[in-house]
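Possible regression after last week's pipeline update?

I re-ran a chain I had predicted before the update to compare outputs. Posting the input and the new output here so someone can diff against the archived version. Not blocking, just want to make sure nothing changed silently.
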Amino acid sequence: MKTLKRLFNIYIYGSMHVGLSVFALVLMTNHMLYLPFNPAVAVFAFCGTMFSYNFMKYESVIRHKKPLNNHLKVIFSLTAVAFLGACISFLFLERVTQITAVAFFGLTALYTVPFFPNTKNLRNWSGIKIYIVALCWAGITIVLPLMDANVPITTDAYLKFGQRFLLVIVLILIFEIIDLSEDDPFLKTVPQQIGVKRTKWLNLCLLVPLFFLEFFKSTVDPRQLVANFCLAVTAALFTIYAHPNRNKYYTLFWVESIPIFWLGLVILVNYL
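New output (post-update):
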């Protein structure tokens, strides 16, 4: 039992779960915008996300040369494998996709590390975190697959980008509610500024355009509407039951599973 718990913690804290969520959103893009499956984009999204998240979480450990326990050694080894996988898959991307991917990675790096003396990283710029993360997720899961397939960005793609951007903001706000007691007040997260109750109402309001954007597509698929409605209800329930005393797994596993759940719903309504 202890071994299973250790493996599960490595899966969660090694960012494999969040990588799988991004991978699921790439598959959702393929389905929604009728793109062929591209192994290079899928592997880059998964490995790049895993490496980026671990880099953000653990760069201070390396910078301050802190001793590594066995748990961190395993995570660092897996992160090195993810970095290698991201580099190899990067070589198989189209040139324009590579340039875009580097731009998103650069934004991630600025988010974590201050590159100039006497400056803060973007993560410490109050209120900006939520938009950076949402932009990166939407860009990696919508823009990169389209660019690599040499498909023009249509109105439907813009709508999906907006929908994806809103989804990630909704998920982040749930994280911010759970992390309220631990976050530095300087970060000025949404719950810190307007309170938990109003943050929940904001989240529920954001779910309305997230769902109704589907009606503006060139072709409205009733099956996708069913999947999106279930997604909105699920995100709403996680929002309603979120509070700062919740166990960390509430967000680190369950909330981050929502994109995977969404993909499962789409498979269910389309192929069963």
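Follow-up from reviewer: compared with the archived run. DSSP finds twelve helices and no strands in the chain. Marking as no regression found.
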